[in-house]
Amino acid sequence: MGAGGRMSVPPADKKAKSDVIQRVPHAKPPFTLGEIKKAIPPHCFKRSIPRSFSYVVYDLIIASLFYYVATNYIHQLPQPLSYLAWTLYGICQGCILTGVWVLAHECGHHAFSDYQWLDDTVGLILHSFLLVPYFSWKYSHRHHHSNTGSLERDEVFVPKVKSGVSWTAKYMNNPPGRVITLIVQLTLGWPLYLMFNVSGRPYDRFACHFDPKSPIYSDRERAQIFISDAGILAVLYGLYRMSVAKGLAWVLCVYGGPLLVVNGFLVLITFLQHTHPALPHYDSSEWDWLRGALATVDRDYGILNTIFHNITDTHVAHHLFSTMPHYHAMEATKAIKPILGKYYQLDETPVFKAMFREVKECIYVEPDEGEENKGVFWYNNKL
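-> structure tokens emitted (383 positions)
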């Protein structure tokens, strides 16, 4: 874990789980947000319109090249190879478009430029193209950043307490059940969250990202939810017209496959950033913003770190300073590690292995036994 050591999986010597995963500190840290910020070079907080747009243009050029090759050459392949080629295209194009999604996410945080109107315009266009309601998600995601680590107010992947675990969890806590859970989570998780708030915090009534009257939003935000919905409807209409002209199968291959990959990575990245046996969660008696922001973990996705604009391996810094442009996040992460010490969390476990470990070991949270630190909760797996 940075300056305090890394969270890693030791050699397979059948140690107890408590020896494998070392919990990170949960006490109030001996540093302030201001002290962390002072350790970061000032230029890291400067946003550049040309530089921000250069990433958008680069990603869109790569996506266009993939589209050109796929639509001009895949149909020339014999049938078995064409199926494989479309699958490969969907994966590669989906990775590039995940990077585009991240750039729109930058806009939602006002990290793209110094102009809010420009950030919102770019974010609305990019996110709508990926069927994401830009303003709707922007505001719910802002709630997440304001309440990270809170059992009552966090917005996404909120851990369950033992009493809230579904009766089906006992029967799904086995290898086949975990595979099914991951398949459903990675394919349906994102649309289910947008439409029905699945895995989100509970509200006193039905919450939906497409509903301007949803309890997620304040009265001053509701008009912009209509704009988000209009963006989604415009793209859906364009897809309908393309289906009429080119055929539904063509649209599913060119657009549907990559979108499925984007949605899967979005859920996986968010899940692994906020779900880990070593991470604490807090109830209202213990939670404060800084400790909550530190209750996240950087992950290593290999070459995908670069393709995803380092949202994967600089997430701790992102939660501390969400308006910082992504192209400064690596430098900022390096600068804050000595200050954070053991509060900085990096897990380099291979992603495929980590997602199976977390879906196995992170089912519900419980406080430690005894009266001390009753408001601090940890994942438990004793079903």
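Residues 10 and 58 are 39 Å apart (CA to CA).
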